[in-house]
């Protein structure tokens, strides 16, 4: 088939060139042209004659004459110079961008699905970096280069002892660069060997495959529970007096324990991955749990931004979350911190969908889903209550807004908005209580009241029982600072200030667009709830970060949403401005996307660098030491330790 395709154009172009030559020589002899065309057409119709043996020669001859007549008429209607013009136009069209087609592509309703792939791909690329430990290549390069640089510097110092220090260093660097060029193969080989050595110290082998150790020490605590569940069907070491019991914590007495979500997540993901890869280990499955949760968080962040202010806000929100260095550094081990970002985003997304829903049944469905995620979040982390309290506070602020402003303006509209808010609030509260009680216990729901007071008293010098407070020594509970908050928002001080201003502008503009009736972007009053929630979430977690650096992670999703919203609003306004000056819409969109990419690109680089630089706290030295202690101690020997 391909051979016919390659040959056929050559035959056509040959016949066309011969016909053009005939036109130039004898334009006044159409009859001769017809005869020559007959000859060309008859040669090209041999295949037709072979395939149509049943036809008579007269019929075939008539067909040839008919084709020749049509070819002659076509040449009379389209002179040679027109044909050349058409060819030139066709050539120029090959290099023309179809802006209308580009615009139609970006206006497709399903475009958001393609945009969503961007933060998902970024999440995967960044979070698998610790698997490969590419940072060891940088370490090896620095080690080998420093060795030869120092060696050359020593030789030059011996040969030229009277040479000034500055001149010696410059000469040594020159000699070093020459040495690198002359011995590049040998040096690269040494770098590879050194990098492999560094990497091997942070990896373990299982079934012929090397895996990176888990990132932090707490990860092994949950890994033990996951392995218990896979072996015995329960996370605890044993059941004592009807309670789950952990024999390792507070040994030799042990302590009661309660099952949590994370070991189940590890075990279920391990079973799933092992079906496709039999060599999969529980430790490696534990490594992938934060990756899966981070992808879900990126999806939820995108949908929140999209529902607030369109696709641009959605992609900005999701990217800022996915590449945030604080989020990455705290969640690339296999600890539970990733749930503290994923579940609040899922809960808020469902609440927003409940407010946006057009009928009561959908409102109830989405609010119930938010309650379900709240119950699961309670199963994952004891501090789950913060997002519930923020939502209730936002509901309260919204109800005050309705009563203070909307009833005066339109009782009918305010009544509809009030009814919608009551449905969502009542359903969310009731379903949260139900799922928290089912998954955990009714007593856990009281954390919504006790939790804030317990956090404020975490670092009291002594408890009522006069024992010293051990939390005083926990580094994560040290107070933060304004610089800490700025660092969470942008990495560098300048970038943090810029994105902080954008985030605050995003919240302020959203509030203005919904507070002032003349500037409302859409009908309805429910959107005033959204700026209230963002305001409370953003400044509430910023204050918590100021009181303790551990809570900086809770600030990340609020910042990502606020900054993503600000970027979305600003660039939507820029797009409208460019369209108003009669700029091509697709070209305007290209400008907006380019500028937006330029703003987000430094954040992406910072996130990639954080992922690449992440190395596990566990290594061969730790493992060999602990293994030697176990082998050379009594079976009931106990090691007392403190994590900070």
Protein traits:
mainly alpha, 644 residues, 3-stranded antiparallel β-sheet, disordered N terminus, single chain, 27 helices, two-stranded antiparallel sheet
Structural summary, described in words:
- The protein is an all-alpha fold and 644 residues long.
- It has four domains: 2-88, no CATH class; 129-206, no CATH class; 220-268, no CATH class; 287-443 and 489-613, no CATH class.
- The chain contains 27 helices and five strands.
- It has helices spanning 2-25, 30-44, 46-51, 57-77, 80-93, 99-106, 111-127, 129-132, 135-159, 165-182, 184-200, 218-232, 261-276, 282-309, 311-322, 325-331, 339-356, 360-380, 385-409, 411-439, 447-456, 482-490, 493-515, 529-547, 552-580, 585-613, 620-631; strands at 203-206, 209-212, 238-240, 243-246, 255-256.
- It has a three-stranded antiparallel sheet with strand order 3-4-5, with no helix packed on it. It has a two-stranded antiparallel sheet with strand order 1-2.
- Helix 2 (30-44) crosses helix 4, helix 19 (385-409) runs antiparallel to helix 24 (529-547) and helix 25 (552-580) packs antiparallel against helix 26.
- It is globular.
